[in-house]
Predict the structure.
Amino acid sequence: MKKALVVANWKCNPSTEKEAEKILNEVKRQIRKITNVQVVICPPFLFLPSLKKKINNTKIVLGAQNVFYQSGPFTGEISPEMLKRFGVKYVIVGHSERRKLGENDQIINKKIKSLLELKMSPILCVGETKEEREKEKQFEVVERQIQEALRNIKKTLLGNLIIAYEPVWAISTNKGKLCSSDDIMTMKLFIKQLFEKNFGLKISERVKILYGGSVDDKNIQLVRSAGIDGVLVGSASLKPEKFILILKAFS
Ligand code: PEP
């Protein structure tokens, strides 16, 4: 059976290394019985070194929430090569919260390209806003975001790519504003067909498609029934008791 991929996006949380270690330790304690799931925890960069020491011999690997596209005179940035040498393989790219801060399709394209060239696994976030959904433009938006992100990238590099469908209106709502299972499934099929049309069946079969947007322990069965390859979890991933239930749903 194919392993599900569950990615925890801690965003700009928690405030201290001690709290970060506490969350990880709790997940570690409860994760032993869980099988068939690849767990990726993406903490703030600052906590990667201390958490790395704690994940030995567990099913957990560490990921990053962002990256720049090269090394050199770029104050405040972290390069793909630094992450790779540190042992990070998965990197979230193009999250809607970063797009809101000004990250555009050209920057996202450079990041995806440099990660794929290093054989790393970018998790490309795509998804429509509330207004775009109301105008039924979700397919147009997702197609454009994927095409722009992958512009001029060799087809042979795409095997490690992961797509996270995250409708912007469903992220961080805490009000149960979840995308319906049917809508997630329809979007998954649309993305698969898009890959098949542009890059062929083999790539389309390899690319993993995740769903993200207010996933928690209460709605995970519904989300899972959409037939996705895994989930990208924000706020619920900071609560070990909820996160473990999400993992169990795939186990
Ligand atoms: C996210 O940040 O990618 C996300 C899905 O957040 P949340 O689960 O909190 O909606």
